[in-house]
Amino acid sequence: MRREGIEVADTKTSAVDVVTEADRAVEALIRSRITALRPDDAILGEEGDDRPGTSGVRWVVDPIDGTVNYLYGLPDCAVSIAAEVDGEVVAGAVVAIPTGVEYAAALGNGATRDGRPIAVRPSPPLAERLVLTGFGYQREVREHQAGCVASLLPEVRDIRRMGSCALDLCHVADGSGDAYVEAGPQPWDWSAGGLVLREAGGRFELLDGTFTLGTHAVRNVVVGTPADGWDSFVEALGRAGFLA
Ligand code: IPD
Ligand code: CA
Ligand code: CA
């Protein structure tokens, strides 16, 4: 399929916010499986309507996180699924599409990569941290994000923009990144990866951001680091203009 090229099926918030037939087909498959097994659960999926439920369980689904990478044949793209009970994320899985590498976590039970336990590595000094980040699809959001990242860059080892928030959080969880920050991702981007990071010994939080776009606040700044690196990273994010 990849060799034949992948078509953009539609655009969403801007001309570069694309959706492919695969995004839709994967989400439809996940929804039909969940609905067949658990008809009373709610579903929040990026590509479909919110489905209300009565059980207190809600599934949070990103059928392809890293769609632009998927479109170009780049490796960082994944299926991300989390389960919440009464609003708390209790389980999550992030599966890399090209390789099938599977990150998983259950609340209180640790995190794994292909079934083997993973843990964050101790944080180096701020100047030696490899920071992963991402950008939204709207011009004004990107201008804000770019300004913050430009201020942060001289303070750290380097910045990576790999293209999948869910996998980025898993990279911090298994020690192949030191920290993640992005202003504005949605629950389907971070729910599963955030639990994987927490269960691997990291700290993951949504902090108040500085940026608003019209009436729409890009308030949630998604932040994840090993627990020992949290304070110094958050201070750096404040200096860089990410935080309110
Ligand atoms: C995007 C990716 C990206 C992040 C964006 C997300 P999508 O999700 O997670 O890394 O920077 O904010 O929207 O559109 O590829 O599902
Ligand atoms: Ca996403
Ligand atoms: Ca997506």
Automatic annotation (TrEMBL):
Q: Does the keyword Aminoacyl-tRNA synthetase apply?
A: no
Asked if the record carries the keyword Magnesium, the reply is yes
Q: Which CDD domains match?
A: IMPase (cd01639)
Q: Which InterPro entries match?
A: IMPase (IPR033942), Inositol_monoP_metal-BS (IPR020583), Inositol_monophosphatase-like (IPR000760)
Name its GO BP terms in alphabetical order: inositol metabolic process; signal transduction
List the GO molecular function terms: inositol monophosphate 1-phosphatase activity; metal ion binding
PROSITE patterns assigned to the protein according to its UniProt record, in alphabetical order:
IMP_1
Q: Which reaction does it catalyse?
A: a myo-inositol phosphate + H2O = myo-inositol + phosphate
**Top-rank taxon, per record:** Bacteria
Identify the EC number(s): 3.1.3.25
Kindly list the positions annotated as binding Mg(2+): 46, 62, 64-65, 189
Name the needed cofactors.
Answer: Mg(2+)
SUPFAM superfamilies listed in its UniProt record: Carbohydrate phosphatase (SSF56655)
Q: Which UniProt keywords apply?
A: Hydrolase, Magnesium, Metal-binding
Family annotation (PANTHER family)? INOSITOL MONOPHOSPHATASE (PTHR20854), INOSITOL-1-MONOPHOSPHATASE-RELATED (PTHR20854:SF4)
> Belongs to which family?
Belongs to the inositol monophosphatase superfamily.
What this protein is called in its record is Inositol-1-monophosphatase
